[in-house]
Amino acid sequence: MKILLLGSSGMLGSDCKLVLEKNHEVLTPSSKEVDIIRWDTVIETLDQVSADVVINCAAFTDVDACQADEPWMRKVNVEGPRNLAQGCARFHAKFVHISSDYVFAGKKAMPQPYFEDDPPRPLSVYGKYKVESEVAVRDNSPNYIIVRTGWLYGLTGKNFVKSIISQAVQKRKKLEVVSDQYGSPTWTYRLALQIKKLIENDGRGTYHATSEGFCTPYEWAGAIVEKLDLKVKLEPSSMKNLQRAAPRPVNCVLENRNLKEQGLNIMRAWREDLDLFLEKYGSELIREAKGK
Ligand SMILES: NC(=O)c1ccc[n+]([C@@H]2O[C@H](COP(=O)([O-])OP(=O)(O)OC[C@H]3O[C@@H](n4cnc5c(N)ncnc54)[C@H](OP(=O)(O)O)[C@@H]3O)[C@@H](O)[C@H]2O)c1
Predict the structure, then answer these.
(1) Residues whose beta carbon lies within 6 Å of some atom of ligand 1
(2) Is the pLDDT of residue 288 over 80?
(3) How much distance in Å is there from the Cα of 17 to the middle of ligand 1?
(4) Active-site residue, 126 included
(5) Which residue's C-alpha comes closest to atom 5 of ligand 1?
(6) Amino acid 25: pLDDT
(7) Which atom of ligand 1 is nearest the CA belonging to 8?
(8) Which residue out of 114, 126, 144, 218 is catalytically annotated?
(9) What is the mean pLDDT of residues 158-174?
(10) What is each CA distance from 79 to 35, 39, 196, in whole angstroms?
(11) Among 8, 172, 216, 228, which is disulfide-ready with 13 (CB 3.0 to 4.6 Å)?
(12) Average pLDDT of the residues in 106-129
């Protein structure tokens, strides 16, 4: 298949490139070459490349910054996906768009997960953009996949795993980590494999795709510290103590129901994938955190 991948320099996009290039022709223009907010550029590109599939990993992902609700933020997160969805409809390509657990309010009592057909009720502006992007995709593209995920980590860019390692390496003796929020840490490489599986099996509609099982950030940090034998003491803390601009859902647990019903779920237990990731890249990340 010929695949046009937007956002290939980002955390998920870089793993999608790595995974898809093995079996497909993948075009990866930079954000300078194809700015998704530019309708004319999007249409010209789709016309020229005749892609079978377009994957949108591009977004403005700073959740707290999005609370400012600047027009350009909405453009990237809502109008960009709408341009791509309309372009895909015009040139008969399948459109794959990435959405988030933040479309939900996270108020379900634990351990009740969110299903694909639960009504979205975003708490933050970023969550509202994601809901609007989903509507734009469904309204404009006859052949789409929306993948809702959350708590991503990987080798590229900033993420929770790297932040815990770098704080531990900087000899912080004590780290306070939130213990009253729940979600499923998800490795971008595994998610990329799941996206590949969906595309190759002509998946259609909305899918939740996160690791199996759930934990709190405190437990997640504990698993990182234990696996890498980092010398730091973790202390449980409450979400209320964090002075963050955007409100976060407490319950971020998504059930991969549609993937399972269609026999397509390849997501693994969060701890299994975290261990694999740290076995592969732990030493490299520690060296990186030490600035060596
Ligand atoms: N990170 C998470 O935990 C998480 C959780 C749930 C859902 N998601 C969703 O998953 C997707 C991927 O997230 P990520 O964390 O991998 O993102 P990321 O690392 O922040 O990367 C974002 C990518 O978007 C590109 N981009 C930004 N503005 C663009 C524009 N106007 N035109 C074209 N490209 C543009 C960036 O290119 P430049 O580097 O050139 O600017 C970069 O490649 C996003 O939709 C995000 O909302 C993420």
Answers:
(1) 6-7, 9-13, 30-31, 35-37, 57-61, 76, 80, 98, 100, 149-152, 157
(2) yes
(3) 14
(4) yes
(5) 150
(6) 98
(7) 43
(8) 126
(9) 92
(10) 11, 9, 25
(11) 8
(12) 98
CATH of the domain at 94: 3.40.50.720
Q: Which atom of ligand 1 is nearest to the CA of 13?
A: 16
- Residue 119 covered by a domain: yes
With the most atoms of ligand 1 within 8 angstroms of its CB, the residue from 16, 18, 30, 31 to mutate is: 31
- Please give the model's pTM, rounded to 2 decimal places: 0.98
Q: pLDDT-based confidence at 173, cuts 50/70/90?
A: confident
Taking the centre of ligand 1 as the mean of its atom positions, its distance from the CA of residue 109, in whole angstroms, is 30
The count of domains in the chain is 1
107 domain residue, yes or no: yes
Q: What atom of ligand 1 comes closest to residue 12's alpha carbon? A: 16
- 235 assigned to some structural domain: no
Query: Averaged over 192-200, what is the pLDDT?
Result: 98
**Ligand 1 binding pocket mutation candidate from 37, 41, 152, 184 (most atoms within 8 A of CB):** 152
Range of the domain at 96: 2-158+186-212+253-268
Residues in the chain: 292
